[in-house]
Amino acid sequence: MNISFWRRLAMLAASLAACTAQAQRPPMLPPAFLGGMPGMAQMQSIVMQRHQARTLLYREALEELRKNPQAADVPGCPPVATKTRTLCIRRPAGQAVAAAEAPGVSSVTSHPASAEIALPATRRRLAVLFGNNAYATPIPTLSTPIGDVEKVAEVLQRQFGYETRIIRDAGKADIIQALNRVAEESGPDDSVLIFYAGHGYLMEETRMGFWIPVDGSTKTAANWISNSDISKLLQAISSRQVILVSDSCFSGSLTREQKISASYSSKSQEALRHRSVLAFSSGDEEPVSDEGKDGHSIFAWNLINTLQAVHGSALGFEIYRTVHDGVHKDYPQEPQYGGVITAGHVSGGEYLFDTRQD
């Protein structure tokens, strides 16, 4: 076992101790490594202990959600003519949305022939990035999200020609309003990327995932953002090309609506023939690493290096596959990639990263 493994293990154990202390519970010690050096099983055991510590931390908010599963939900906005100061989610306006499909995971290995339509050049490339470090006690602060979004934004702007907006230490209203603004401003020929780095949680009973903004609480879920609302926010964006990148714990549940495989789309020009709403997460339904490399999270470090290596164009799945392999080599987490059917993703669609700026 090499030194880097021991270093990761030490950081993981330290993170567990910090999280447990924040939960105001007696320390849960890492398992004893009998018989010599630890292996992957021991690391996974510590990872799950971290999840248990976070479950204790959020126990009051989780109990609220058990009693009222809609406790975190945001209402839809009223018609434009009606003025309101209430936080709400903009409704889709005049966009073609995919027909409803049965819930569950579908594994896509091919797509039907596309209609022969003209492929307009991307009019605008817009990236909105949320980086949350400054959580209030007892929720642990994070050290890498703001640096992660700043570097990702730099690469997207310099190499791919994106207009970038960075929202640091975003509360729930900041996130909802920023994404409503994207929905209001964007058009069908735009390419939109959304990046979230911060705390998250997955309720085991309902399999519902949540973002936890900086004004989130351990006592109530009122300021959490559910995957259901995230899907509605994505659906309201009329752009043909939309991708959500989420670097947070338990962020993989949105990707399960439709899995993407290597043979999903083999030609970059196919990416613009369908409405594509993709989710790219730093992990599956497991805690992800709070530790990092060179000041970035393990996921963001691999994403940054992968994007910098693109010359010409690359489909989202190609980016995902490289990042997945790099992350998994360093840490027991599994980045995920899939289509968000509930937000209007159409089978056959893909997201295109293109260094050729229009």
List the helices and strands and how they pair.
Blueprint: H1 3-22, H2 40-57, H3 59-67, E1 124-131, H4 145-160, E2 163-168, H5 172-185, E3 190-197, E4 199-202, E5 209-212, E6 225-226, H6 227-235, E7 241-247, E8 258-259, E9 276-281, E10 292-293, E11 296-297, H7 298-308, E12 313-315, H8 316-330, E13 336-339, E14 352-354
Helix pairs in contact: 1-2, 4-7, 7-8
Please give a structural write-up.
45% of the residues are buried. Helix content is 31%, strand content 17%. The strands form 4 sheets. The protein has a 7-stranded mixed β-sheet with strand order 2-1-3-7-9-13-8, sandwiched between helices. It has 358 residues and is of the alpha/beta class. The protein folds into 2 domains: 3-57; 124-354, Rossmann fold (3-Layer(aba) Sandwich), CATH 3.40.50. α4 links the parallel β1 and β2. The chain has helices spanning 3-22, 40-57, 59-67, 145-160, 172-185, 227-235, 298-308, 316-330, and strands at residues 124-131, 163-168, 190-197, 199-202, 209-212, 225-226, 241-247, 258-259, 276-281, 292-293, 296-297, 313-315, 336-339, 352-354. The N and C termini lie far apart (49 Å). The protein contains 8 helices and 14 strands.
In short:
This protein is of the alpha/beta class. Helices cover 31% and strands 17% of the residues.
Mean pLDDT: 79
% residues in beta strands: 15-25%
CATH level 3 topology of the largest domain: Rossmann fold
CATH class of the largest domain: Alpha Beta
Structural Rg = 20 Å
Question: What characteristic shape results from the CA principal axes?
Answer: globular
Second rung of CATH, namely the architecture of the largest domain:
3-Layer(aba) Sandwich
- SSE arrangement, N to C: HHHEHEHEEEEHEEEEEHEHEE
Strand order of the largest sheet: 2-1-3-7-9-13-8
Largest sheet: 7 strands, mixed
Structural class: alpha/beta
Count the domains.
Answer: 2
Q: Helical amount among residues, as a percent range?
A: 25-40%
Give the termini distance in whole angstroms: 49 Å
Instruction: Enumerate the spans where pLDDT stays under 50 for 5 or more consecutive residues.
Output: 12-38, 95-119
